[in-house]
Each structure stands twice: as structure tokens, then as C-alpha cells.
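SAMPLE LOG
Freezer: B-3
Tube label: C17
Construct: single chain, 174 aa
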Amino acid sequence: MRVKLLSAIALSVALLFSGCAFSEASAPTAKKELHEPTAKVAKLIKKYDLKIVDFDYTKKAIGNGTRKGAKALLVDARPEKKYLKSTIPSSINIPDTAFDKYFPQMKDVPKDKEIIVFCGGWHCGLSAKVASKLKKSGFTSVKLYQAGQPDWNKNSYLQVSVAVVKSAYSKNNT
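STRUCTURE (predicted):
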């Protein structure tokens, strides 16, 4: 037993040092994780003069995850279908392609209220577009959580719609 264990350890170490061990960077299907905006998104951020905030800032801004307990208003700029599937707790949905339809829910929000807009991550320009429209509408404290939904998924819990819960429940009862 001891000989097998020592042999396995020796083989693992040999493979590791010889370069035969699996490397995420060498995997042809490995998806590179971004930690900064793509050039296209960075151009939008600069054009609209937007400030980027991180996960910790956003988590602190939403407090206990309810709209009443949040210091800032979170706006999900993704399409409604994605928003209904899952979103960051306490957020409202204002898709960039339907801004005028969803914007009326902002009518009672003070113009100086901190607003944090997010979308599908570093490659996604939807949040910058919605943030610029909010600024043009007179909101003075608009920021981006550009790492967005993918970053939140890794670091915290999601809020899902009742439809998603019902669907999951019905699938488990069949």
C-alpha cells in the first residue's frame, strides 16, 4: 500500500516537472477570463466618463440584498430574458435596447442617488450604454460594475425569478 502511494506521488511529480500535467493555458477549449474591459468596452467607458467599481464595492452598496436595504440602486442592463433567469439581488432591469420602455420605473428615484449598472462582464458594453443614457437623463452618480454578472456568480448568490423556481420545482417533481 505504501509503495503504491509513493509510486503515485513520484509519478505525479515527474509529470508535473516534465510538462505533461494538464495546463489550463494549453487547453485548446479553455476560455480566457478577463479582468479588464475589452478595447471596445474601454472606449465606451472613456467616452461616457464612467467610473468602474468592483465586487466588494457593489456588495457593500447593496447591503442586505433588498431594495430598501441598499445604499445604491443596481441596474441590470441585460435583456429581460436574462434578467428573469438570474440577477444580482435588489437590481432592477433596464435593457439597453428597451431603455424608454423600462426607464419610467426611475421616475421617483432622486437624481443624486448612486446607481450601479452591470451586464454580462468585461466584454459587455450594455452597461456603459445604459449608464450613459441615465447620465443624459440627469442622474449624477452613475457607476459601472463592469465585471458584472459573471463576477457576481463566482463571489456571491443570485436572485432568480418565481418562474425559474416554479420550473425547477416542477422538473424535480416529475
